[in-house]
Fold this sequence. Notes:
By secondary structure, this protein is an alpha+beta fold. Among the domains are: 9-249, Immunoglobulin-like, CATH 2.60.40; 260-280 and 446-547; 290-440, Rossmann fold, CATH 3.40.50.410. The strands form 8 sheets. Strands 3, 4, 6, 7, 11, 12, 13, 14 and 15 form a 9-stranded mixed sheet that branches. A hairpin with a 2-residue loop joins β3 and β4 (76-86). α23 (828-843) packs antiparallel against α24. The chain is globular and about 110 Å long.
Amino acid sequence: MHLRPHRSPAFVGFLAIVGAAALSGPALSQNGPNNTLQVAVDRPLPPPALFIASDGPAKQLGVTRVSVEARIIGHLAHTEMTLTFGNTHSRALAGDLYFPLPADATVSGYALDVGGQLVDGVVVPKDEARRIFEAEVRKGVDPGLVEWTRGNVFKTRVFPIPPNGTRTVRLSWVAPLESEGGQGVYELPLSFENKVSEAKIRVEVVQADAKPVLEGGEPLQLAFNTRQVAETTLKDRPVVANLRIKVPAQATHGARFERSGDEGHSAGTWFSLRDQEPAPKDLPRLTPKRVQVFWDTSRSRDKAAHEKELSLLTTWLRQSGASELEFTSFSNAADKPVRFAIPAEIAKLESHIKALTYDGGTQLGSLGLQPGPQWADAVIVFTDGISTFGVEDPGSLGAPTWLVSSGSVRATPAMAALAAKNGGAFIDLARVTEAEALTSLGRPTWSLVGVEVLDGTIDDLRPGGVEPAAGPTHIYGRLRSASATLRLSWGVPGKKAAATRTHKLVPPSEVPIGETLRFAWAQKQLSVLMASPDRNAAAIVALGRAHTLVTPGTSLLVLETLEQYLTWNVEPPRTWKEMHASFVKGRSEKLAVAARLETDQLDAVAKSWAEEIAWYKKDFVYKPKPKEIAKSEELEAGGMGVMGSGSGGGGTARSAPSVERSAVMMDRAEDQESDARPDAMMAKGEAKKDGGNDGASEPAVSIKPWDPDVPWTRALKAAQPADRVKVYFSERTTHGAAPSFYLDCADYFLSVKDRRTALRVLSNLAEMRLDEPALMRVLAHRLAQEDELQLAALVFEQVLRLRPEEPQSYRDLALVLGRRALEQGSGAADLGRALDLLATVVKRKWDRFDGIEIIALYEFNRFVEKGGKLGVKNVPLDKRFIYATPLDIRLAMSWDADLTDMDLHVLEPSGEEAYYSNNLTELGGRVSRDFTQGYGPETYSIKRAMKGPYAIKTKYFSSGAVQLTGAVTLQVDVYTNWGRPNEKRQSLTLRLTESKEEFVVGEIVF
């Protein structure tokens, strides 16, 4: 069972049901979190519906049993709905279950029947849950999985529904009550028109001093008793009613308490406090003289309602009394500010904005990177709030700030939090009129400006900072003392509080057991963390785990067998006692096995590393054959010397080395040291002298520029310098859907020294397919090539979160962090983390990438050697793995495509070609293991390079994958004097499109 956005016939059938309720806005979009299904549905919501596929229109499967339990406490409602679907057919069926939730619902529970028992979903990090789900589906099993969404419609697959049998699903959610005339309203549509064999409905209003009012309860035979509980059981009849319960205002305000039944981290007495302090009617508007406007010109804003935004801005400026405006457009970086006199130059400002073009990723953090003191009295930011590139949090902007959005896709929590932090508000032009927006823009935001504990002990108090208070204020926390006193303060951020009120929190003698307030607190905390989702990714996962909550970082997963739980190390729910006990026993046995396996893994790697060291210590002396000597003398007599590489795709054949070159090679071999002892070096942080190329003339490295020769690059080359950007936008109209377009155009702008445009163009990759690791790897590698190491590291961090099952994710990030420490002076923390990441590659067993551990050890030792000087003290591998290996040449090639085999070839001066089936040459050139299933890396290493040219080639051997970029994108790093003080590196990104295609990357001449 899995949440999937879908336009299947089943969804068409679901829309027919939704049609009974008015659809507001677009009926369907896939612009929600994680590309989940988004359906805008007005109240009342349609009930859940399950459809089965058929040759014709999808058919709805009937509900045979339904159970609803609703618990209302204060302004919150916790609903649990259990549905049993019956299959009257003689064959097993698969169905799609759709269930809409209220706009601010928190998914707090999901269960699926397994062997006649409802099994609760357990919290698993989202990416891990995805991997488990996909692996189990490939086995022909369909586990249960629910991923995060807020509001709108969940869809899960239900399979199998046995012939003449049933399948049961239970869903739970927490949502605030609707507000109506000062009262809270709970509403639940029940529209099961076929006869239901049994329907149980129970509603409880907890800690209510006044009696709730039941509307629509007559058909359900519901009535509240003195305990404020209404319940009924109906049999063999349709259940069609819109259940509405009005809760008096006094029952929703004030403090409410619950004691969590959770025995772990969430145990304790949770409380909610609801209060309201209306804003003063005479709250003065700001009269700013200087206004700062930031305008998001990223690619994702291309289709926003710019005319609506411009109208709001210019109308407000004419009313505001402002005299000067500084306008800054931004996408991946902020542009140079432009000043305008107001109101005299409003028309000029309009023309400037209308002439803007929209391109590149979004770096919201660039707003906080502006030099100099804060200049403005008010700040307005027009953006969708989705930071896709670089730093996402701009921090304080130094003045009251309003964020304005007009698009259908927007990061509301992030914008609301940024505005609140800066003493302003978020204005959603997609939902409010210009007149309504004008009343908010420039007006001080009445806010909750402080929550203070005067006595008692409270943990996890939320909110912890400034929060707009246009409506009621909601405070949540966990009471650790018998009672406590809170003081709430309201006012304008940055100014003295205008109103305060104290509340004494005294729980009743018997605190009811429940989880509603805990879930509500967790949702409040989640909204805080979602203001910076990338930075807070780990905290979001921890929150979901601690509170058994579906979040953007956690999912609810149901597995069916002990083997599945043990295989994936997913702890079964404690409510499944027998399975949980079996798992605990089985896991202890498995952990013992895993410890032995890790030891075995390290022993196996140590053995392979010892073989690598033996190669490194060996003296390779090339002895030319008589025919080669004669050929060499003949060429030298003719004055031809040694032939260089050709510029064609296949390269040019080399002559054999001369006797003189061979003698030089032997002299160098005799001079080399026989042993490197980096264990002593590591302790002192001394550079190891290995008798290499230090002090000699530097080898010449020529990298062949990548020229894809495609229509867009031909158009750019033909353009006049002043027209290049215009030509780029023209070509983007036709080719902008292809990632390769941005790679090629960025390379072109770099070639003509227009770095700013190149980085903007390249950053479009971040806007194209969010959370697509292959594309993100390509982007990060290109940023690293251009020494944008901070940006590259941020992208590689995202890749690691998405693909922790792949060793390349650890290695890529480690290499960038190491470079940042060594080349840009970021310090020991970066280098220490790089060592930890590479050690992870060494310690784990990687099924498809056996041998990558040795590559990581070369890089690990290179960082160890340099780490002592930076103060890195912890080396996370034992002495068996510590050995310095400086090299004359080291080449590393990786690629973006899974299930794809690319090969690295090196034609040595001897005429011998090193590649996967000739992985050790007479000169001592060594090629690493051939990775045939994707990504690489593949490396070529030689300790002592013979004089002469080394031609570097790559070959596209085969692929079983469709590539995002329309080809396989390769990253080739060329090092000379690798691991020595005079190390040099050059890098190249290129693409090969057809199997068997070959490309000469470049040449090194010693």
